[in-house]
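[step 3/7] inverse_fold.run input=structure_tokens len=348
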């Protein structure tokens, strides 16, 4: 039975099912075993981990990187590190991803929110904070359900004005945005000043597992030596090897990004012909805002009956429940897109 096409998920470039993936995983296991065996500071760290971590630095042009077994712990690792450097307060977008919200609480930092995507409100919140304290601003770059893009140039300028740290969670920007796909920092030409730390994931456009934090050496060194990094797992050797391979394949197969954007534009024209309100058009997430949750659920079910899957679910960090998230991906063929057109047309 043929699989039902899924116009969903985060494997934007189709790298998760790349033909080189099984061999990359097997090679990592053959050379270093499946298990990471011990912590980063113990016997777990291999020359493969070293090579992978250094490659994340050259790939992103950051001086220092700390690889993570799971990106979800990135917020907790980062906030614990900046708390040890004297930061007391975090000001974050009201809809920031839950790994940031959880991470700042775990680090015992005081959390303040500004209205979603609203830089004027960010400035207001900054002005109201006690003078003299060390502050961090944190936000997603691309919001995972809506696809909305944070106004990062203005956020960066605000961080600079108040001499604040800045954490950008670029999970959905990495591999998609920027001239060479390096993500939102490249897209907006955000300067890599010491205040800037970026959380990257390998689980979305890169089709792998885990992620990494990039920033200035002083801070990243603290992350590498932290309790969360050393009390938990590092990427298993098969994962580290696959990540390393996919970062290289990403550059040698730039047609994947071209195909993603070609498909995205074709999908936008289908959605536009049906006059569907797309929240953000610039990336790979084409989210439709319906009247309410019932309408969004009904469309999702109707699409399934027509043979395509666009699951409706309520996302933890996203208060709006009327959104149906359609993902543009490089893997769709013209016949997949024709199926999408027919299925969507039957809903309205
Ligand atoms: C914005 C954002 N940050 C972090 C994560 C966590 O990434 P991972 O699934 O790679 O642990 C996600 C996952 O969905 C995400 O959407």
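[step 3/7] decode complete -> sequence:
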């Amino acid at each position: 039975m043929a699989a039902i096409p899924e116009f969903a998920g985060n494997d934007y470039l189709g790298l998760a099912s790349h033909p080189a993936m099984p061999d990359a995983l097997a090679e990592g296991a053959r050379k270093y075993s499946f298990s990471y065996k011990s912590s980063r500071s113990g016997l777990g760290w291999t020359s493969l981990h070293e090579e992978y971590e250094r490659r994340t630095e050259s790939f992103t042009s950051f001086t220092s990187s700390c690889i993570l077994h799971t990106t979800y712990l990135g917020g907790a690792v980062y906030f614990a590190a900046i708390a040890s450097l004297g930061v007391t307060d975090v000001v974050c977008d009201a809809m920031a991803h839950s790994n940031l919200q959880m991470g700042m609480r775990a680090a015992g930092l005081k959390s303040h929110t500004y209205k979603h995507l609203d830089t004027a409100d960010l400035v207001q919140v900054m002005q109201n904070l006690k003078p003299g304290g060390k502050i961090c601003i944190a936000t997603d770059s691309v919001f995972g359900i809506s696809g909305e893009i944070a106004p990062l140039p203005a956020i960066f300028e605000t961080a600079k004005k108040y001499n604040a740290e800045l954490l950008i969670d670029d999970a959905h920007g990495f591999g998609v945005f920027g001239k060479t796909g390096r993500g939102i920092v490249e897209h907006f030409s955000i300067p890599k000043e010491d205040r800037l730390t970026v959380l990257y994931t390998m689980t979305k456009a890169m089709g792998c597992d885990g992620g990494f934090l990039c920033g200035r050496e002083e801070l990243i060194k603290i992350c590498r030596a932290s309790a969360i990094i050393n009390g938990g797992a590092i990427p298993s050797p098969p994962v580290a090897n696959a990540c390393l391979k996919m970062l290289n394949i990403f550059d040698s197969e730039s047609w994947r990004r071209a195909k993603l954007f070609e498909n995205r534009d074709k999908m936008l024209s289908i959605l536009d012909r049906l006059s569907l309100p797309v929240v953000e058009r610039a990336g790979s997430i084409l989210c439709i805002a319906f009247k309410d949750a019932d309408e969004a659920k009904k469309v999702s079910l109707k699409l399934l009956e027509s043979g395509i899957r666009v699951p409706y679910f309520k996302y933890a960090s996203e208060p709006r429940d009327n959104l149906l998230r359609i993902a543009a991906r490089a893997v769709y063929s013209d016949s997949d897109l024709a199926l999408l057109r027919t299925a969507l047309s039957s809903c309205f």
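[step 4/7] annotate
The chain has two domains: 17-251, 254-345.
Strands lie at 64-68, 87-93, 110-114, 134-140, 165-169, 196-201, 211-215, 285-289, 323-327.
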